[in-house]
Amino acid sequence: MGTSTTPDGLVIVDKPSGLTSHDVVARMRRIARTRRVGHAGTLDPMATGVLVLGVEKATRLLGHLALTEKEYVATIRLGQTTVTDDAEGTLTASAGAFGVERAAVETGIAALSGDIMQVPSAVSAIKVDGKRAYKRVLDGEDVALAARPVTVSRFTLDALRPAVAEDGTQVLDLDVTVVCSSGTYIRALARDLGAGLGAGGHLTALRRTRVGPYGLDEARTLPELEERLEVLPIAQAATAAFPRWDVSAEDAERLSHGAQLAAPGLGAGAHAVFDPAGVFVALVEERDGRSRSLAVFAPG
């Protein structure tokens, strides 16, 4: 593709429905004219909203950005279940949601809030003995994934609307807002809420409104990015996502060569290190009172 003139940084995309996260990465490679593009946290093809891409050196930030909190608005349909726990899958049951009261829905939502153990959707990208779970399901296998701890810090019911499904089933459509840890499956929340209410449930719409500090106000559609590529410079991206640690020019030089610095009291998690000129030097974490480099960005 030739030499890229794209700056190191993040591109915040408002992903359209119907594209996989990999599709968006492929489009961005063409737009930015570089193969060094990656994404932080996938979105299902059905879903829309914030997808954080890294270009050039910023791809090395992505594994750490993926650990951040995420926010969604979604619609859950009570009264029907599907094989994929969302509207794209084959219908497996239509029990209906007749008689399900708002108070019961609120109680069910409360039970799925806070620190919970969640069984991911069987149709997920999680690997089981080296093979993606969704591929095993498509091959006709029964897949049972282990429950894992997730945090649902906010799960609110914004609206409740009686509806009639295409097959005539009386259902309830719930508009909800969810703030959760990375690794939480909103499809699984829909499934579990419906199961707890005895009606079944699946996801019919999903829009991610925030990933860590990056929200829809910063996101651009692919046509907008094709018209004008907007890249959040890597230093700004790091400042927004991580606690900042300013060091001397000498220490910055040492860090750029992989040296460890005394870092008592730096605190848990990744920290962005800057030199006196404001250059983003490295991403580090404290280990036994010393800094350990997670990724070095400034040339040594």
TrEMBL record:
It catalyses: uridine(55) in tRNA = pseudouridine(55) in tRNA. Coiled coil: none annotated. Gene3D superfamilies: Pseudouridine synthase, PUA domain. Its EC number is 5.4.99.25. Residues 187-228 form the tRNA pseudouridylate synthase B C-terminal domain. Residues 242-297 form the tRNA pseudouridine synthase II TruB subfamily 2 C-terminal domain. The keyword Manganese does not apply. InterPro entries: PsdUridine_synth_cat_dom_sf, PsdUridine_synth_N, PUA-like_sf, PUA_sf, tRNA_psdUridine_synth_fam2_C, tRNA_psdUridine_synth_TruB, TruB_C. Responsible for synthesis of pseudouridine from uracil-55 in the psi GC loop of transfer RNAs. HAMAP family: TruB_bact. Belongs to the pseudouridine synthase TruB family. Type 1 subfamily. NCBIfam families: TruB (TIGR00431). This is tRNA pseudouridine synthase B. It comes from Streptomyces polyrhachis.
